[in-house]
Amino acid sequence: MKKDLEFIFFNMSAYRDWQAGVVNRNYHIFFGIQNYPQVKKVIGVDFLPFNLFSAVKVYLKDIFPRYFKKNIYQDLTTTCFKPEKDKNLFIISTVDSYIHPKTFIKKIDRIINRLNGSSKNVQRIIVSYHPLFVDLSPLSNETIKIFETVDNWTEHPSYKNYKNELNENYKFIAQNYDMIFTVAESLVSFFADLGREKKCYWLANGVDINHFLQPIDDLNKNALRDTKGIKKPIIGYVGTIQNRVDVKLLEYVAENNPDKSLVLVGPVWPQFLHHIRRPDVELRKLRKMKNVYFLGRKSYRVSLFYIRQFAVGIIPHRLDEFIKYTYSLKMLEYLTCGIPTVTTAASGVNQFSHLIYIATDYRDFNDKISKAISQDTPELHEARIKAVENFSWENKIREFINKINDFILSSDEQDGKL
Predict the structure, then answer these.
(1) In this structure, are 11 and 120 located in the same domain?
(2) Domain that holds residue 29
(3) 13 and 106, same structural domain?
(4) Whether residue 187 is found in the same domain as residue 214
(5) Which one, 97, 167, 239, 269, has the greatest CB density within 10 A?
(6) Structurally, how many domains does the chain consist of?
(7) Same domain, 336 and 214
């Protein structure tokens, strides 16, 4: 008989960001797992701040606004509340990871135990996405520790000052966590190089198929308004404009397609803004081009209506060490919307090499944009949608749960409990 499960997530995002429409792998697993009857409780610990800037942001946006509200737990540095619509969901936000880094886990453990705790019939499972806080030993015993590896943070430009600490933490994860799941196949090899081979699984990203295939309704009005004066056909990109995006490639595409529009749907990462000490010259040039449109951040809820207006979706990612450890969510989203896709040769794209266009250099990327548009047919549109049927988040979460149940069963057999 399968045990009831209680999950504690150390998230890579804040609950408020998800509510505002920012969606990632963590979001899909965190909310999707609640649909399983076996799962009795889900506790989310918001992204733990690790420097002064992130601590101030968490305090002002998550802790202070809730200080005079009815919460399950509240003190000057931590809050725990229960969202009204989610029966078995609880959210914890704290800045103690910055203020009291040696003791904050003990406080989280006390709060978790206050939420009725776990009985002998419930298996408590920790799922962490945060490689800067990996020693969770102060949490109650009898827990299964899982690390969900999204990207390799040692290669992430935002964490270059923490590279040595991250290298040590990944070693700790490899040695001490019960199970490891990775977003990219290359991350399995990464952990193998750290001596971890067993119970390390590649679980590629999924896609919310029903969301991207939903009928067009009033939600698309803003998308139609935003793109009303934009010349067709549209070469489109949905995502944050940040280091992984090859801005020079975007400039090349815009220059060589004066008869088309390049539409970028997503926020610009702060380091690209002009007031930053080292402004990105290429981005400033891109902004001035007449056939380039920056539409800004759009909620996940409405992003599909922008994608559906693209003649082709592009993934112009730099091929560096960071990209080697990623797996593109937008590739699956483009395919689910049925649109042709042109991408650089990033991790995971070969799974769909028969349906997407993989470019080798700038000229090839541009040539394949033209080919993707001219060769598109209704039959290819349907083939792309069909190709992602097995990549639904429902299937991915089922695989995640099944691996956990297998681990529990094998552990109980070894302990002589069965």
Answers:
(1) yes
(2) 4-206+392-414
(3) yes
(4) no
(5) 97
(6) 2
(7) yes
Tokens of 148: 């969900």
Average pLDDT on 73-89 reads 90
Structural contact between residues 233 and 260, judged by C-beta atoms closer than 8 angstroms: yes
Distance of alpha carbon 108 from alpha carbon 94, whole angstroms? 9
Residue type, 367: D
> 179 and 139 share a domain?
yes
Q: Is 259 helix (H, G, I), strand (E, B) or coil?
A: coil
Q: What is the pTM of this model?
A: 0.92
- Please check whether residues 399 and 381 belong to one and the same domain: no
Report the candidate in 332, 115, 344, 12 with the shortest Cα–Cα distance to residue 204.
Answer: 332
For residues 184 and 327, membership in a common domain is answered with: no
Residue 358 CA to residue 351 CA, distance in Å, equals 11
| 53 and 198 assigned to the same domain | yes
CATH number at residue 14: 3.40.50.2000
Give residue-wise pLDDT tens across range 171-183: 999 999 999 999 9
Q: Which residue has the higher pLDDT, 327 or 228?
A: 327
Whether 44 shows a pLDDT value over 80: the answer reads: yes
Question: Mean pLDDT across the stretch 115-129?
Answer: 81
Is the Cα dihedral 213, 218, 222, 224 positive or negative? positive
pLDDT tens digits, 225-236: 788 889 999 999
In which band, very low, low, confident or very high, does the pLDDT at 142 lie, cut at 50, 70 and 90?
Answer: confident
Strand pairing report for 78-81 and 89-94: antiparallel
Half-sphere exposure of 308 (CA within 13 A, CB side): 18
CB 72 within 8 A of CB 115: yes
Angle, helix 300-307 to helix 329-336, in steps of 10 degrees: 60
